[in-house]
Amino acid sequence: xxxxxxxxxxxxxxxxxxxxxxxxxxxxxxxxxxxxxxxxxxxxxxxxxxxxxxxxxxxxxxxxxxxxxxxxxxxxxxxxxxxxxxxxxxxxxxxxxxxxxxxxxxxxxxxxxxxxxxxxxxxxxxxxxxxxxxxxxxxxxxxxxxxxxxxxxxxxxxxxxxxxxxxxxxxxxxxxxxxxxxxxxxxxxxxxxxxxxxxxxxxxxxxxxxxxxxxxxxxxxxxxxxxxxxxxxxxxxxxxxxxxxxxxxxxxxxxxxxxxxxxxxxxxxxxxxxxxxxxxxxxxxxxxxxxxxxxxxxxxxxxxxxxxxxxxxxxxxxxxxxxxxxxxxxxxxxxxxxxxxxxxxxxxxxxxxxxxxxxxxxxxxxxxxxxxxxxxxxxxxxxxxxxxxxxxxxxxxxxxxxxxxxxxxxxxxxxxxxxxxxxxxxxxxxxxxxxxxxxxxxxxxxxxxxxxxxxxxxxxxxxxxxxxxxxxxxxxxxxxxxxxxxxxxxxxxxxxxxxxxxxxxxxxxxxxxxxxxxxxxxxxxxxxxxxxxxxxxxxxxxxxxxxxxxxxxxxxxxxxxxxxxxxxxxxxxxxxxxxxxxxxxxxxxxxxxxxxxxxxxxxxxxxxxxxxxxxxxxxxxxxxxxxxxxxxxxxxxxxxxxxxxxxxxxxxxxxxxxxxxxxxxxxxxxxxxxxxxxxxxxxxxxxxxxxxxxxxxxxxxxxxxxxxxxxxxxxxxxxxxxxxxxxxxxxxxxxxxxxxxxxxxxxxxxxxxxxxxxxxxxxxxxxxxxxxxxxxxxxxxxxxxxxxxxxxxxxxxxxxxxxxxxxxxxxxxxxxxxxxxxxxxxxxxxxxxxxxxxxxxxxxxxxxxxxxxxxxxxxxxxxxxxxxxxxxxxxxxxxxxxxxxxxxxxxxxxxxxxxxxxxxxxxxxxxxxxxxxxxxxxxxxxxxxxxxxxxxxxxxxxxxxxxxxxxxxxxxxxxxxxxxxxxxxxxxxxxxxxxxxxxxxxxxxxxxxxxxxxxxxxxxxxxxxxxxxxxxxxxxxxxxxxxxxxxxxxxxxxxxxxxxxxxxxxxxxxxxxxxxxxxxxxxxxxxxxxxxxxxxxxxxxxxxxxxxxxxxxxxxxxxxxxxxxxxxxxxxxxxxxxxxxxxxxxxxxxxxxxxxxxxxxxxxxxxxxxxxxxxxxxxxxxxxxxxxxxxxxxxxxxxxxxxxxxxxxxxxxxxxxxxxxxxxxxxxxxxxxxxxxxxxxxxxxxxxxxxxxxxxxxxxxxxxxxxxxxxxxxxxxxxxxxxxxxxxxxxxxxxxxxxxxxxxxxxxxxxxxxxxxxxxxxxxxxxxxxxxxxxxxxxxxxxxxxxxxxxxxxxxxxxxxxxxxxxxxxxxxxxxxxxxxxxxxxxxxxxxxxxxxxxxxxxxxxxxxxxxxxxxxxxxxxxxxxxxxxxxxxxxxxxxxxxxxxxxxxxxxxxxxxxxxxxxxxxxxx
Length: 1454
Description:
Largest sheet: 8 strands, mixed
Radius of gyration: 48 Å
Structural class: alpha+beta
Distance between the termini: 106 Å
Strand order of the largest sheet: 15-16-17-14-18-19-20-21
Number of strands: 22
Strand content: 5-15%
């Protein structure tokens, strides 16, 4: 850079030798000169104004001033015992230097004021004598010298800052003086506590700060820059040099970035105000750039610090070696033991500058300069963020790594600046480095031994050339392994640079090749298999390396897997560190990130070979598939030993990804063939750890997760939820049937289990039930919201297993286990706590569930077992678990309703409802009974049609009262003359006999007291009188006469058997009171009988099994419709967007869905895997919009008038089509918004604002447990669902659930969170994704019923970026919270396209479930339906007595 410029080193050497500082007093004896100095300087010092008022100087001529300066020059070289005299000399010169100030002091002589620059240059040169180290001085006197030197440095720096008169010659003199004193103090080997050691940081800081000032005032000449560079090379054994160099570099870099990339670029935060003002204010941008580059190259290549022979080449080290009493080499000086730390600090400084260019906002390395030069900092300020604590995370899933700046320079640009140094530093101690050193040694050995002449100052080095490469001559503290920390920092910095690659950015192949070679060298595992600093640094900074489309990166896959095998499976990881402190949790997290980015590679590339970087062709070819078992073992073992919650969360997501990918791969790619096979892959049946087919992974994952859930994870909320989510995902997998037995060997448990698929599923359900039992049995202080959330999630997981594996309920033990857990959840205890105990019946138990949430979850599971297991999906399809029939639909099929002209007699819901009788049982189920047979019924049987509306949906049943089964009563005989036998006309004789009411021997039985309880005729005669008995006897006599006459008449009639007469069957009865029969047969008319002697039963009104509803009210039909619009399942919506490269506005993103726009075909394929395309008009489930969801097919939709605005541009925007998926407990709609959605939402908002909200709302807010303010005043119960204040003022049922929740008004208005799925063409666009603007396109209609609209901060965003390899990179963003991020998708995971739809859907469902679990005021769907039924009961119940109720049953419907 300065090769053609002359160096000023000779001038510095002259100053050091005292050529310009020689005084005439040196010609005289020292005592004489001392006396002259004392007398002269004392007199001059009295006029300075220090002890008395300042006076004008008496020196008025140049000769007088020069003579005094000659005396002061000698005084500055006096021994330190003359401290006061030297101090006076310093004071005089410091005062005289004020001649350069805008306002000189009064004591400055006039000649100096007139020619300030000339005298200032002489004064500056004379100050050199003060800084010359004195030999043999005590530490106390050295400290005094240091104080005076500090005073001089402070004065010179102040003068340079405020002087406006300094000319170029004075600036050059000042800079050369600073170089000279640094040379004399810092060039010699470091000696502890000498003046050079004490002044080291100060003289360097003044040199650099004044140099920066000179760059503004009078830019130094190239000769000065060259001299500075050569001088710094002689001071590299001082750690303060590197620290000050870093400090200045970072300050200049901060200014450089400010004007190069603008104010929006991430600002570099310097430590302290002083460092922030290090750069002079007047420095221009061009000056900053020139100065920055020159300072960057000031100390040369930092890798030279790894060679003590080079650092110790100066004459000062040679002199020390020659004078050493035992004889030593120059590189054996003790001060060189700091070289490894100096090298580390230099690389740290470069790393900090790289961070600054990448836009990482972090405190710079400047604070290191405040520490002592001999103190080795143990915690890095740049580099690995090892000091970070996991406890400081705001939420699980938050990445501690700060985001890179979008405007960062390209990787090539940064590598042009720092690549050469970093690549060389990364090879220090590696095989390539050792080979080069051997090559140099071989070349040097061919030359004869010679004296090495130093080109710097002509000094002589006696070192032999071959000793440069002799490691045995180095002390143990300077062996090459001691530089491991600096090497680790260098390779970590390179990893950060390459991980900063943007989408589509090209990196020069030469840089990629050098980087891969360096990584391969650093990833070599030692025999001890320890994790050293280099390995830890690579793993810590390479989290994104395999998800950036780097060309050829997969050649490093075997090396990284070997590194992961050391770090992740080890529970007590031992780090072999020297100067860098690593946080083990962060190290494991970064390793897990790498693992998640390579998990799908074996099945993606399958049998493709992995090339080796070396030219050795003798090695066996390795394929991707051969790495699968190693990856699985790493994952399983890491999950076995992991203790950090977030790391475990990530591993669980990766585990489900692996199993799902293997299952899908075998189903699609292999078509159900045998186990995966490839070159070199062997399947060991006796050991599952070496198996990697889908079934083996399923068995192994189920066993491991269930075991750890019970043993280790049950006390951690997030890990428990993630484990249960994984188990739910495993339950949904349809794995190829395997009849053979599988042997599982778990070394941690030392047991072998022989199992089949059914046995594994049964064991999983048993473990989950045990988990619920353990959680419920924990002591009361442990019961909290988090604990109950885990129990609820476990019940949901159990339901998933039973729904996917209904055969489990055929197993008696499994059924008993599940039902016991359900009983535990509902009642709080089991009927049989132990197998030998007598069961406790239901009416003997006291209901004490762990919480109402747990009870709700248990009730839901019980209903699923009884109603859905083995029957879902029903004939209605998965879109509905309720019947698709209502009153109107049933009446259209009724026999009696069609009129003569074919028209239908019922045209609206109110008319249809009037034909039904409505009853409520158990205060939670509405029974609608229709007594008229339907049109397809030909039997004149008592028929009743029921619509049962309960907490879990609407069900339709038709019942008939039959005396014979259908198989026997199906054939009917309707002949006109059925024929009969000829009657027998013989008249039979009726025998006369006396009827006996008692047996003949009754008189012989001895009577008892009970026999006399019935009074005799005589006793009645005595009690009531003879008249009453006489009347009774007359009645009996009359009755006897009438009976005899009737018999006689019957015998003589023509209808008697003596006359031939055909029998005619009676007419068929079509009038039945079927409702009364149904209610009677099912026990709904058995009224409660109370014991008057029991005070408990005698209190309060009797509990009636049946409540009659008044259906005459016009609002009854509306309330029934609202109840039907309350789904029995949870419902969620995911909004899908496609973002082209560089798009940042909502209009651009929405415009991608227009018909004339093209997008990646893989995006369309991914949409098809999310759910089933359905037509909104024919869909009876959740559509993504509240107004048209859960509508019966064929019925009119209230918002039909908005459908007319739909254009052909809409695809899955919800206008005509939508993507839909559902299981037994949840529904989810995937909407792809376009311009129609904004128009539609605006019209819906206008419609809602112009009409009454109570009339427009058909859905209640699932996030609230209370009404609005008006309803809360009239209804003290906090569980009402409706926001309608125009309801009847009837006394509500006393509250029994969660009374305290009404005290949380902030949660009462919490709106549902939005979930976005975003496909990115350019990954960096996620930073500018306009969530706030896109919320206007993501509306369901439920927002109007909540008190606030969803906020952008509450949205969950799942970004998918398609890599060139065909894989997908995942990025998750969401609100900070303990339960924000759900599995199986994990931030940074790399997916296969085979599984993306399934995993995205599961993640969206799990996010929604977690949000519901975290909401104190959330009500499950069946609870909301139950409360709505109770609300209807309060509005429309009829207070009937028992007699009135029975009379009501005989009344027919209108």
